[in-house]
Amino acid sequence: MSSIQTARRRACHTAAPLLLAAPWLGCARDNPGMMEPSSQPPAALREITGRIFGPDGRNICRTIEEGTMLVYLIDNEISDFFGIQEVTCPDNGFSLSQDPADAFLRVELPVNDNIDDLPWRTLNQFPVPAGGGNHPVHIEAGERLGGRATFDGEPLPQVPLTIAYDFNPNFGATFGESGPDGRWVEFFGRPLLLQPDVRYFAVDCFLLGTTLAQGFLFQGFLFPSARSAVNCRFETAPVSSFTHSASRLKVTPLPGDIGGSFSGDFFDQYGVGFGAQFPFTPGELPRPRVQPFTEIFNGGLIIGLPAQDGHPARTLLGADGAGEFECGDPCRDLGFDSELSFTPTGSGDRKRVTWRYSDAGSENAAGLEVIQQSLDAQPPHDYVLFRFRIRNTGPSDVRFFAGFFGDLDVGFDVFDDRGASARNGRLMYQVSEVEGGSLVGTMLLGDAPVTGNYFFTFDEDPLPVLDQIRALRGNIRRATAAPTDQRYIHGAGPYTLDRGEAGDLWLAVVAGETRSQLLANADAAGEHVRRMRNTAISTDGETVRMTTLRSSATRTGRRPTCKSCTAK
What is the pTM of this model? Predict the structure, then answer.
């Protein structure tokens, strides 16, 4: 598939309900209740009529010659459209209606060989009289967006870039990607052109395994007077030094977070994690890739505490579950006070990474401390092993269930993943029903019995806290799932710890190209745990050490990740 076809697919991809970039979130009213019927007659709609003209002041069809234009009347309040009208040459007239006095009218030209230097989309913002009015649209020449994408100073092709409108980034102006020289190319192959004197909002410029010295893009600008270029100067991220890469399965461990591609709180310091990627050459890390190319979009440690000692039921999340899990603010409870140590590059093929952190700073804190240690697989198998030693430092005993919560996306299409379980529930995994290929999941190991197997979809977002705990303990169960965009909870327990006591949760991220290969890798991880179960946690040889400095998710304070984000 060509890069331009890939860009088209991104644009046409159905947007999932989970849109996690802060300005793209839509919120429904809480319990709006019944409204009394109004005794007033409905206000008359304001009809907007007009014609579309080209740079010569004449019918636009004299310039583009043929094709169908789309005229959109944008409803800014609910991020939708009052109406969309097709206008096919030689006609150039339109007529649409709306209630508000302020109009946002967007004209989209057909993609053909004749639009030349005209912007693909043109936006007009204007007031509409109470009785409606006529508004001609003049399409003028666009200007090229400057800048480029680079990685460690070298041009980097195929980096996606979406340009939305700053008044409401749910609505897009155009999109494209970087070409061979790193410069921006529009989705249909020409240099990326924008309508001048419009405020835009740059999205994307976000790759796994990288960091941006200037911070992530999510910011508005007036083009071209305030900004005429967008530069994405990617650099090798610190996560490259401690991402597991000995086997064909690559996994970044962050504190409580398995994959690290969603840990916005740590992007400035550690960069964007590689997520979980499979299969790649053992001993090598993949080149920087866009976020859909990770098998784990988001996931990590979850601890569910039933109501006890006067405290309500609560969960502690090791990764940001915003949008998918009911949670506090911030929607992450573990790891803000973390310390890292790991074996340095060149000390051996198999890497060991140790994080120490707690639930300090969480509104749901229970006085738990965690030592998280991850290890590469024993060759020739494909897994990464995690050991979570959870210690109770609270004033009294505590009872909880623990496990993994995750949003896995196997392959490119997030909506064709089938969920399954094996090994008496110890293994949960997903496979793309259409694309086939990789199978990826988690294997719970160790002494604690497996209690929870629960697949769910975006229809249940955000999953309530009580249901999170019910899923961990097995009160609700769904061990298989039909193809769609899946999430799941994989639970073990119960753990009952006296003050000062600790317990271990063992978890392996496993992958395979066939089901038999997946099961063999899961069994190999189980044998690995049996050999290590009663050993002490050692950090011998972990000579590289870092202390986490908590910062905002981006330099602009907006979260730079979303799932299947597509501006309208």
Answer: 0.84
